[in-house]
Amino acid sequence: MQIRMNISPDAIDAIPSWQPPEGYALRKIQQNDEERLAELLAGATAEWAQNPFDLPHMQEYLDCPERRHGSYVVEHGGELVASCFATQRAEFCPAWGVLDYVCVRPGHRGKDLGFGVCVSVLRYFRSRGYKAVSLLTLDVTADNRRLAAIKTYLKLGFLPEQTEENAAVCEDIYRELGWPLPVVWWGGVAAFQCSCK
Questions:
Q1: How many domains does the chain have?
Q2: Which of 39, 135, 144, 163 has the most CB atoms around it within 10 Å of its CB?
């Protein structure tokens, strides 16, 4: 089961500034990053290893203005070690932003690099006037609750959308994280759904 989480513009405005640790550099993606991005994503998690992360697919994936201009990476010693991609969720009007493929390379985790790339993409969306930003977690299972990722998203100000399927699971995750209960659910979806004319 994946959990959809959303964040409002006010919550984005409240996120504290972030500076990369010494030896790490935060930057927007650049031309010629495609091959290193494909390698980063292919090695980030077993779930993504099945995806066709190669140079042609990465070039095609980045053939979108929001991804090309709003996505961020962290670099360390010439190696890309974290990423977050900006995508448009066009079924809402006005459009929402989406955080895609948030990842940190093993060996560089625990340094808040995921937080840093997410903050940068969220601020990009805010500067572009997006009314909300969403994400989908990787599959949450009994064996893998995605605690580190979900803790990062909660620290940023994301709130989960409540469903019959995820209500008890989110409560358990909050308990495991030591996050304050009751779960605060996202309540703003209906306010942004409308038909574009």
A1: 1
A2: 135
